[in-house]
Amino acid sequence: MNTVDAKAIEHAFDRSYYMTRYPDVRAAGLDPLQHYCENGWREGRHPSATFDTAYYLQANQDVRQAGINPLLHYVYRGRAEGRPTRPAMAWIRQHLAEARPARIAQAHGTVAVAVGQMPLRVDDLVLAFRNQNGLVISVSHDDFAVNVGGVQNVVSDECAALQRRGFDYLHLSPAQPGPGLAEATQAGEVCVSVRLNGTKFGIVKASALRPLLRGFAGHSRPTHWVIHHLMGHSPEVLATLIEDTESRKPLLWAHDFFAACPSYTLMRNDIVFCNAPPLASDGCRICVNGGERGPHALRIQAFVEKVRPSLIAPSQSAAELWRRSVPVRPVETIILPPADMALQASRRASRGGRPLRIAHIGARVFHKGWFVFQELAQALRGDARYEFFQFGSISGPELDFIRHVDVRVTLANRDAMVSALVENEVDVAIFWCLWPETFNFTLHEAIAAGTFVLARRDQGNVWAAARSLAPKASRAFDDEASLLAYLRGDAFPGNVDRAPLYRGGLLPNMGCADLLSNGKLQEVVA
After folding, report:
1. CATH numbers and ranges of domains, the chain
2. Which of 17, 43, 340, 385 has an alpha carbon 20 to 30 Å from 59's alpha carbon atom?
């Protein structure tokens, strides 16, 4: 390809994407555009996130037979002729192709974890108990001290608050986290990672904790169980441990819908919300998780029937869907939002002619609407009125039309996301969750930062919270086409500039700390 042709396609070529997706090109010190022009297109490599080289050649046999660089053809003729650069609904097709049952995904990602890697010394653990006001045994799907997310936020807050109130906080997480329940046939061999009052003490077989917990049950101080998540655990072993401790009524959180299906978002084939149909339905038969759902749901139902917990739901919508999806009724249902908001009126500064800054907040996750946001940013990349951002962790290639800002929210820096949004003068946040979120921390962070919220209607707590907290600085849409049309229209930038501005912060509710230490279990029943 000559220099003129290379310059002609340069505007359609994403250098950062190519170098990130193809590290061998970076390692060889090659110019990415030159590599694509000389060899990359023949090898089926993509010049950007929105151009599929193999698809373009397959769909356009005239281009293939002529041996023309597909991107060059597209720039000179294909764009004007309306030839697509990717298959219809490419991101859905890709995600559907990658869908697999939770059990297979769990086996694929398994790394053998043995007790000997960090054996728990029970004597050390016993000596560390303070045994003042009682013991809280908390269960979740991973180590909250080293992982980031909404559930981890709640567990961290709960752990800190209960320690301040004189409780010991014993946290159990799977030594080998995975997307499903632990195998029923190997329940006695399940290993858990143990933290006491935030300090990691090691790994032990869950069944080996029975003597320790029985001994604690003999003391006069109360024992409480808080089940934040059952993923990776054996519900049978946990039920036995709960019985051994002679504890107060356990609390079971509905952070998501794992109690109803291994697909905790209730996404059929990881693509579309299924609304938890009956176990024998056609909807389950055509889903990759359909075969696992029956045994999975029955094991959790047996657990609920045996331990008779109170259900703790982070929102009313979460409680309603959980109770529709799980046939076993909890003793009671308590609505406990993980955080409250403190907002005050503020003055909106003039943008001074700069573009509106529109953000996706959080990880690049399918069910959080990342691919919808990416498609939107691509469609509007030539619109000088807008700039697009992603705040949070990054996975996958860099994109030249979306700027990434790395943000990590921790217990020590809970306001990191709000601060990052304010510092970067973000005007708008888009929330296009594909499942009914139970409580969305990033939405609340966006509102606390004063952003205008654009959301998908009917997405659980997200739109309900936006409508309640920012009624004059939010708008809902039924589909992506309506959202795109609104952004392409003339009214939107002015609507944002005229919207009232409120800023503030999130006030964590400390998980179940108040319920357990103040005897409030009967006060907020749904």
Report:
1. 3-88 (no CATH), 122-338 (3.40.50.2000), 341-508 (3.40.50.2000)
2. 17
